[in-house]
Write a structure and sequence with these properties.
The chain has helices at 4-16, 24-36, 40-53, 58-71, 75-83, 92-113, 119-125, 133-142, 158-166, 190-205; strands at residues 117-118, 151-152. It is mainly alpha-helical and 214 residues long. The radius of gyration is 19 Å and the shape is elongated.
Length: 214
Amino acid sequence: MEEPKDRCAHLEGKELIIGESLSVEEYAELLLGFLVQKQPIKAKYCYTRAIEKFERNQQLMQIWELGDPICKQNFDKALRICNATTLGEALQPYVEELKRRLTSVQLFTMTNSYSSIGLSKFAQLVGLDESSGTVQELLQKCNWTVAEDGFISPVRNAELMQAIESLNDAKFGTGFDIKFAERGVGGATESDSNFDNLKSLIDSTMFFDAMAVQ
């Protein structure tokens, strides 16, 4: 059975073959594959082609409801939609992976944007209700604690970077590949370099490796 990243490449190639055509399900999978692999421009044009062929198809329109805010880098909105989206057996794994990858970006971005953040705002940024058990799970993974006043200090630590790595499954294609090393002589660490490299990646791409679609 093909891994999702290979499946996406297969469908992309199939669409280009003269005499071949993609079904609604195949277009839906290709569209989700582009979104998961951080290719918003390909995703936008894939949706345009698909919806021209299968006009007002509800499944394609449902996927684009979460694709549009992703392309506009409105990740908290995209996460809220992801959390409320249920597709078929073949497509739902893409939604779950997309949810994890967007969550990893939001977690890292918090360390750049906030020295302190309220629990309710934290939950909003990861597309969840404050009472959700997943909120507590994410805080535990990052080793972030909620103070008595309800605020969190989102520090960039090894636990955060491990959480980010765990939220990206390589079988879906390009994701974060963060490796850690013990502190060496002289005070410099490979993990410090990884922090800087990941920051540069996110700052330069805002999760996507192409120009943002406005």
